[in-house]
């Protein structure tokens, strides 16, 4: 393959080739059809082409927003990355992701996340592993049952209830870090029918306080599984009610499968000590624009301080340089400063700290933070205050 790789947004003429590339990479059903339009709400499709004009790589920038301590941060979440087998190991993926990052930066994105099939190529481009989306199996009969609360109403949801479900999701997730807001063109364009096979609602005085969306699956034997796509609540009573409803499936679905959200109202009701891991999806994080990433998010009100550091980002040169992080009163700012700094941070180290996935001393031990003289790496723990990030959506 020629050494030159040209990266640009895909056009309608490229869609069949992009579909075939993805089909071979991910083993998709050949009977499915390629998109008919190159433009789609909330996403930008990129392609890498060789000197002969042949498509040799593709990737999609998903225009998400993520919650970070109460504020929505614009994200360029990456999906559908595929490289032709004859072009792998020749710099196509790096060129493709460099182009995607530049385009995302130009449209105002601040951060990025992705689910890798293999981590090494993304690490080479500045993403770092920051968490795991876990899917676990629980014995349905082991779910705690209790006497239904008289002040709560449990009923089946309808499409008319979806705005209330969206609002409750936001109540649960907006104070966390990393969770998708589920706002914007990408979600506005989605089918708004009931998700899965059913939605169970829990209400208190007409107000939604908990919900579960689920898929019944097939059969009623020992291998039958009730898949719970999501179960969230804003009170302990509503969480107990939801778990009790899920437990009522024990006679026909011996296994409940779900993705627990760490420390939320529903998870603390589950017998997670007996959970069996069904699937784990590693996710990786990266800044697109470090100044935006710091300025756009919320910060704990108690956090206060300042630290200078030098950042190196080979793919996004607008991030490289010496910066001063200043945090106070629930907000933060990253500004450029002259001169050198005793703390020298790799972009992957920035990703770990920002996502709350590691302390600065661990980042230094991993070789992603170098300290000159008596510089204390712990000073950069300021970048990670606010708790670890978590994702609940797979993309």
Describe the fold and architecture.
The protein has 395 residues and is α+β, with helices and mostly antiparallel strands. The chain is 20% helix and 34% strand. It contains nine helices and 18 strands. It is globular. The mean pLDDT is 95. This is Acetyltransferase. Residues 5-150 form the N-acetyltransferase domain. It comes from Micromonospora vinacea. Pfam families: Acetyltransf_17 (PF17668), Acetyltransf_9 (PF13527), SCP2_2 (PF13530).
Low-confidence stretches: none
- In percent, how helical is the residue content? 10-25%
What string, H for helix and E for strand, traces the elements in order? EHEEEHEHEEHEHEEEHEEHEEEEHHE
- How would you describe the shape? globular
Based on helices, strands and strand pairing, what is the structural class? alpha+beta
Domain N-acetyltransferase: 5-150
InterPro entries: Acetyltransf_17 (IPR041380), Acetyltransferase_Eis (IPR051554), Acyl_CoA_acyltransferase (IPR016181), Eis_dom (IPR025559), GNAT_dom (IPR000182), SCP2_sterol-bd_dom_sf (IPR036527)
Protein name: Acetyltransferase
């Amino acid at each position: 393959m020629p050494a030159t790789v040209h990266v640009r947004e895909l056009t309608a003429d490229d869609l069949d080739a992009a579909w075939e590339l993805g089909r071979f990479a991910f083993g998709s059903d050949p009977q499915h059809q390629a998109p008919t339009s190159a433009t789609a709400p909330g996403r930008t499709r990129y392609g890498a082409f060789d000197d002969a004009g042949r498509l040799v790589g593709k990737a999609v920038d998903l225009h998400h927003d993520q919650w970070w301590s109460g504020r929505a941060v614009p994200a360029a979440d990456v999906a559908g990355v595929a490289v032709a087998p004859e072009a792998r190991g020749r710099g196509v993926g790096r060129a493709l992701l460099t182009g995607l990052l530049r385009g995302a930066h130009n449209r105002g994105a601040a951060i990025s996340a992705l689910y890798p099939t293999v981590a090494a190529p993304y690490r080479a481009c500045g993403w770092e592993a920051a968490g795991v989306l876990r899917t676990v199996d629980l014995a349905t009969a082991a779910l705690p049952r209790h006497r239904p609360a008289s002040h709560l109403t449990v009923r089946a949801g309808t499409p008319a209830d979806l705005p209330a479900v969206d609002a409750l999701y936001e109540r649960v997730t907006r104070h966390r870090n990393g969770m998708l807001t589920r706002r914007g063109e990408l979600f506005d364009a989605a089918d708004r029918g009931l998700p899965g096979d059913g939605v169970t609602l829990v209400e208190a005085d007409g107000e939604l306080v908990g919900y579960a969306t689920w898929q019944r699956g097939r059969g009623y034997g020992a291998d039958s599984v009730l898949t719970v796509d999501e179960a969230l609540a804003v009170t302990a009573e509503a969480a107990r009610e939801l778990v009790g409803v899920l437990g009522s499936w024990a006679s026909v679905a011996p296994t409940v499968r779900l993705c627990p959200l760490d420390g939320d109202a529903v998870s603390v009701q589950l017998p997670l000590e007996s959970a069996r891991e069904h699937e784990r999806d590693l996710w990786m994080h990266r800044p697109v624009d470090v100044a935006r990433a710091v300025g756009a998010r919320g910060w704990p009100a108690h956090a206060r301080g300042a630290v200078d550091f030098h950042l190196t980002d080979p793919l996004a040169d607008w991030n490289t340089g010496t910066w001063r992080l200043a945090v106070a009163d629930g907000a933060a700012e990253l500004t450029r400063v002259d001169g050198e700094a005793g703390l020298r941070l790799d972009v992957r180290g920035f990703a770990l700290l920002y996502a709350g996935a590691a302390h600065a001393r661990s980042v230094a031990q991993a070789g992603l933070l170098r300290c000159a003289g008596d510089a204390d790496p712990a000073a950069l723990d300021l970048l990670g205050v606010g708790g670890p990030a978590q994702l609940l959506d797979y993309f």
